[in-house]
Design brief:
Number of strands: 8
Oligomer: single chain
Strand order of the largest sheet: 2-6-1-7-8
CATH architecture of the largest domain: 3-Layer(aba) Sandwich
Distance between the termini: 12 Å
Number of helices: 9
Largest sheet: 5 strands, parallel
Low-confidence stretches: none
Radius of gyration: 17 Å
CATH superfamily of the largest domain: P-loop containing nucleotide triphosphate hydrolases
């Protein structure tokens, strides 16, 4: 089995790009961010204090997260319930960024991610795929963009959904999340030594996908 690991900060377009690369390569796409968001959603809806280590560990023991593919679309199940529609809120995203730094949360998902890579050819995106989850991945990409460009993308996305959006607050949240992700004690966000840097600030989606496909085909095919 072959693996393509795509890491990078929040809002860099990892999920969008990874899905397209997986489709072109005929690989399985594994959205690890959705797994962390599912656990975060559980914490939010059950008012779990993630700073209370005992409470957090007990909560993680009672959580089951599964990825299923239904009509070619990834669905995320939390304790048997499809929670895919609830994973992209700002509240869940911020909780995911905070809780993903916690050892019990990372341990709960590490084996699941690695097992999927053993069973299938995968494109997996996240914060620490190339450095921690799949350190032997055949292709490693570090996908990034400026905080202003990432905030602009999120701002437009919210407006298109008919939601109110504050650009400055969005960018401030992104910068804060970057700081948290890059400086956490466990598996911080960083570019693997053998990863290819792709800065998408001034690139279109097709350009980014083609750059990654070119790298993948030279190493795998």
């Amino acid at each position: 089995m072959a693996s393509i690991a795509i890491d990078g900060p929040a809002g860099a377009g990892k999920s969008t790009i990874a899905k397209l690369v997986a489709k072109e390569m005929n690989y399985i796409y594994v959205d690890t961010g959705a797994l962390y968001r599912a656990i975060a959603y559980y914490f939010v809806t059950n008012s779990i204090d993630i700073e209370n280590e005992e409470e957090l560990s007990k909560a993680c023991e009672g959580i089951s997260v599964e990825i299923k593919y239904e009509q070619d679309a990834q669905q995320v199940y939390l304790n048997g319930e499809n929670v895919t529609a609830f994973l992209r809120t700002e509240e869940t995203g911020n909780m995911a960024s905070k809780s993903s730094a916690k050892a019990p949360v990372r341990a709960a998902l590490l084996d699941l991610q690695r097992d999927m890579a053993k069973e299938y050819n995968v494109v997996m995106d996240g914060r620490d795929i190339g450095t921690n989850v799949l350190p032997n991945a055949e292709v490693k990409i570090y996908l990034t963009a400026s905080s202003k460009e990432r905030a602009n993308r999120r701002y437009k996305e919210l407006l298109e959904k008919g939601e109110q959006a504050d650009f400055d607050k969005i960018e401030a949240d992104i910068i804060e999340r970057d700081e948290r992700d890059m400086n956490r004690a466990i598996a911080p966000l960083k570019q693997a030594e053998d990863a290819i840097l792709v800065d998408s600030s001034d690139m279109g989606i097709d350009e980014v996908v083609n750059a990654i496909l070119s790298a993948a085909k030279s190493k795998i095919l």
